[in-house]
Each structure stands twice: as structure tokens, then as C-alpha cells.
Amino acid sequence: MKNLLIAFILIATLSSCKSGKEKLEENIAVNEQKLFADSTRMLDASVATNVLSLYKEFVEKYPDDTITASYLFKSADLANGLKKYKDAIDMYSQFREKYPDHRKAPAALFLQAFINDNNIHDKEKAKQLYSEFLQKYPSHELALSAHASLDQINSGLSDEELIKMFEARNDSLAKK
User: S-S: 88 plus which of 43, 50, 79, 135, CB 3.0-4.6 Å?
Assistant: First the structure.
């Protein structure tokens, strides 16, 4: 009876032990739930920073795991949400290099262009990336947005100037 009890305790102890990877995944899942936990649905910067570091840790420790691509893309999105634009661009680039055939590779390229265009204001880099996007993914659902953004960059008009132009056009159409 004593041996049976010891065996049961040993089995229970061993089965409750989780690997470092499992613990990290669990920690990520718990913290992801906290990201938008309050009623405002606003990103909690301290939780987001913690989740971002957990994603990075997982990507570094387990580069060949099947969930690593998802964590890398999420880390880029999170960095973007935290206004760490250069980090986001670097992570989207890393994602594209490591997973060029992933279904989110087009979005990673588009988001690199978008961040360069709208947040970093490097219009030349944005132009290059939008052009690359359109060359690689001409029928992607983001292609129209890429065309419009590229047209805006090429026009040299600011967002405000474009808005005024569209408002004027709408006003003239409404008067007809």
C-alpha cells in the first residue's frame, strides 16, 4: 500500500510538471487575456510590454516551433501598437525572411510600408515597400490600399491636402 501511494504521488508530481515551453505558452495566454481586460478596450501598455517580451523570449528559445510564426507576427503588431515603430518594422522583416510563404507574409510587407509611410514618414522607403508589395501580391486584398498609398506618395500631397481635395470634389458632386 505504501509503495502504491508513493507511486501515485510520483506520477501526480511528474504529470503536473510542465516544460519551460509549456509554462511560457501558458504565461503568454494568460497575459494576452489581460491585454484588453478593462472596459475601455484600450491597450494596457505595461501588460503589452510584458507580452511583447514573452513573445520575443518564445521566438528566441523555440525558433522552429509551429506557433513561433504567430508569436513573431503578434510581437510586430504589438510593437506597432506600443508605437515602437522601428521594432515593429524589424519584426515584420524578420517574419518575412523566416516565413516568406506564410499567409501573413503579404500583410507583414504591407504593414512595413504603412508604418514607414504614416509613422516614420520615410516616404521613399514606403514607396519602395508598397511597390514591392504590388509586384509580389498584385491581387491581394490590400493591393487597392497599396495603390492608393503609392499614388498619394507620388502625388506629393499631404493627408490634409487630399482630404480638402476629396471634400471639394464631394461638394461639387452634391451641387449637381
Answer: 79
Contacts by residues 137-144 (CB-CB < 8 Å, ≥ 24 positions apart): 137/106, 137/109, 140/106, 140/110, 142/106, 142/107, 142/110
Q: Which of 122, 60, 106, 55 is nearest to 82 (CA)?
A: 55
- What does residue 122 show for φ and ψ, rounded to 5 degrees? -100, 85
In this prediction the pTM is 0.79
Structure-block grid coordinates of residue 44: 494596457
The pLDDT value recorded for residue 17 is 57
Q: What are phi and psi of 171, to 5 degrees?
A: -60, -40
> Distance between terminal CA atoms of the chain?
94
115: which 3 cell numbers? 508604418
The domain spans of the chain are 19-84, 103-176
The predicted-structure confidence for 50-85, as pLDDT tens digits, reads as follows: 999 999 999 999 999 999 999 999 999 999 999 999
CATH 2.40.50 holds for 19-84: no
